[in-house]
């Protein structure tokens, strides 16, 4: 449901670590500000009620921080239920909330999401926060930040060593260079796709455009070429779906009369 949750199910592997008597899981976008050794007490599953745009929900926990007792039997049970257990957010949190229908409530300071800072300031007590969780946009991402979180982002930077800050700057520069290259990519991709099609390599053209579409949104011209490639490969449904996405200036000679005829026939149906 959300691309950022695509790999979060890997988190479930922590339940396999049954050589440990007790464990505390902490997301990599969270900062431990104070000692949390007391979380290792107990033999149950414990977590903090989830809070974001809405106020904390006592019936739903946030899976960014939780205390648990590793058990391979528990892990196997999770694996057996994955295929038929719904997740309200498409990620591990939705699944775990169904799997652990009973859980011990930890205080909010053990997993304070940054959205409490902006959306529920009356609930944010800075001096009490033990784990600060940078949900959503991360402080190390180069674009799309939110001024409301400037103070918290600066605090995250304060946790970095000078070497880590230098590495971060280098990474951001590389990302900037990559985005500049990507901005120039459409013309190059289009030329390559047309060349493949001209030489009868429709499969190569389709693969090139499909790979590009996973990295960024295809231009209308690129979508037309993808439709042509799919039609030549006999993938009429895929070609029509591409035309539907392109909309607007799709009726050009480059598309081909056969594609348009099939397209309008399907529209009438």
Notes on the structure:
The protein has 269 residues and is an alpha/beta fold. It folds into two domains: 3-133, Spore Coat Polysaccharide Biosynthesis Protein SpsA, Chain A; 181-268, Alpha Horseshoe (Serine Threonine Protein Phosphatase 5, Tetratricopeptide repeat). Helix content is 45%, strand content 12%. It has a four-stranded mixed beta sheet, with helices on one face. The chain has a three-stranded mixed beta sheet with strand order 2-7-6. It is globular, with a radius of gyration of 25 Å.
Secondary-structure blueprint:
Elements: E1 23-26, E2 30-32, E3 46-50, E4 57-68, H1 72-81, H2 92-99, E5 104-105, E6 112-113, H3 114-119, E7 131-133, H4 150-158, H5 162-198, H6 202-215, H7 220-232, H8 236-246, H9 257-268
Parallel strand pairs: 3-5, 6-7
Antiparallel strand pairs: 1-4, 2-7, 3-4
Helix pairs in contact: 5-6, 5-7, 6-7, 7-8
Query: How would you describe the shape?
Result: globular
Instruction: Return the CATH class of the largest domain.
Output: Alpha Beta
Provide the number of structural domains.
Answer: 2
Radius of gyration (CA) equals 25 Å
Biggest sheet strand order reads 1-4-3-5
Biggest β-sheet strands, sense, barrel = 4 strands, mixed
Distance between the termini: 30 Å
Mean pLDDT: 84
Structural class: alpha/beta
CATH architecture of the largest domain: Alpha-Beta Complex
Number of helices: 9
CATH superfamily of the largest domain: Spore Coat Polysaccharide Biosynthesis Protein SpsA, Chain A
How much of the sequence lies in strands comes to: 5-15%
Q: What is the CATH fold-level name of the largest domain?
A: Spore Coat Polysaccharide Biosynthesis Protein SpsA, Chain A
N to C succession of SSEs = EEEEHHEEHEHHHHHH
Stretches where pLDDT is under 50 for at least 5 consecutive residues are 249-256
How many beta-strand runs? 7
What portion of residues is helical? 40-55%
Protein name: Glycosyl transferase family 8
InterPro entries: Glyco_trans_8, GNT1/Glycosyltrans_8, Nucleotide-diphossugar_trans, TPR-like_helical_dom_sf
Organism: Isoptericola peretonis
């Amino acid at each position: 449901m959300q691309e950022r949750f695509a790999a979060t199910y890997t988190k479930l592997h922590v339940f396999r670590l049954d050589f440990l008597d007790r464990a505390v899981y902490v997301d990599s976008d969270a900062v431990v500000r104070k000692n949390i050794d007391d979380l290792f007490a107990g033999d149950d599953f414990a977590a903090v009620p989830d809070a974001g745009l809405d106020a904390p929900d006592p019936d739903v926990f946030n899976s960014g921080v939780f205390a648990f007792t590793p058990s391979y039997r528990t892990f196997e049970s999770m694996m057996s239920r994955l295929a038929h257990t719904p997740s309200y957010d498409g990620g591990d949190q939705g699944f775990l909330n169904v799997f652990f229908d009973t859980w011990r409530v930890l205080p909010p300071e053990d997993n304070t999401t940054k959205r409490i800072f902006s959306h529920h300031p009356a609930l944010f007590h800075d001096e009490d926060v033990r784990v600060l969780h940078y949900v959503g946009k991360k402080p190390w991402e180069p674009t799309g930040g939110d001024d409301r979180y400037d103070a918290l982002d600066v605090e995250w930077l304060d946790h970095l060593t000078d070497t880590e800050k230098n590495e971060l700057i280098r990474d951001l520069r590389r990302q900037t260079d990559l985005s500049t290259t990507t901005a120039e990519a459409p013309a190059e991709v289009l030329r390559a796709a047309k060349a493949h099609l001209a030489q009868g390599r429709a499969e190569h053209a389709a693969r090139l455009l499909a790979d590009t579409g996973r990295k960024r949104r295809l231009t209308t011209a690129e979508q037309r070429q993808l439709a042509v490639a799919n039609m030549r490969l006999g993938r009429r449904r895929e070609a029509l779906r591409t035309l539907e996405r392109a909309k607007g200036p799709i009726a050009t000679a480059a598309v081909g009369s056969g594609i348009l005829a099939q397209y309008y026939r399907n529209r009438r149906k």
